[in-house]
What does this fold into?
Amino acid sequence: MDLTTGSIPITLGQLIDLLRGLSNDESINNIVLYFRVPKIITAIFAGLFLPVSGLMMQTFFRNPIAGPYILGISSGASLGVATITLLGINLGLFSGLLVETVVAAFIGSLGVLWLLLVIYKRIRDINSLLIIGLMIGSGAAALISLFQYFADQQSLQQFIFWTMGSLQETSYQQIIVLVCVGLLVLWIPFRYSNRMDVLLLGDDYSHQIGLDVDRIRMMMIIVTALLTASVTAFCGPIAFVGIAVPHLARMVFKTYRHLHLLIGSSIIGVIVMLFCDILCHLPSDGIVLPINVVTSMLGVPMVVWIVMTQHKLGQQ
It folds into this structure.
């Protein structure tokens, strides 16, 4: 359905003709192959990466409303993009502004990752790390506001559009990067799923059975940062998917085992992202809503409902 939905409607018959190689309409072929297929692939990877990252952060902090952006990784990406967009700094790349935006987002995200790893090696305290992540986000937001204050109107508009998120800007070359990141790190949380189960029982018990808690947590930080940085760099910030989807997986699969939750979160995350992408194209007259707006409108009431439900269960 996502292939047929858009500012230019495509019928199911036209799509079938294209898949069978019988379509002679060059414009339809280009729209499907170079716009909608990359967009759907991007939505699938965002639906995989963000819920897995959110689940790991909820386990890491033992906090049900923790998400993939809680460590300030997204704020670092936003600061990187704001630096080249609002200040007009040229990275010296000749592949266009979109490529420079992606590179700047990655640099900002990995810079925050490096800072978090240095801090975690020194303090080894998850509550302090949570506070530092929030402070990094606040500091980045303050710098971005300062850049916006001095930016010209065109640069400011361009940055605001990026913060709204989009699945439509990725090319096949950039999708290859998403695939490589997925193949590189996405298998790690599945391999360590049993050890993450033990983390839920507390640090004391984990140490007693010989689990290297610091190593597992370091892995969770690195994997979350890489997955979140990839999505943010190519799509902009996408809110609430990483927070809400793991809770949906817990309710659907009725388990707290990470292997089942990782699989369930991945499946539900892909479905949610594709559904949100369809909602983005529902307005008429060629209007496409930003993906971050749609995910926020769906995610905010869902997270509020989850918090209220858990509060009622805690009182019983």
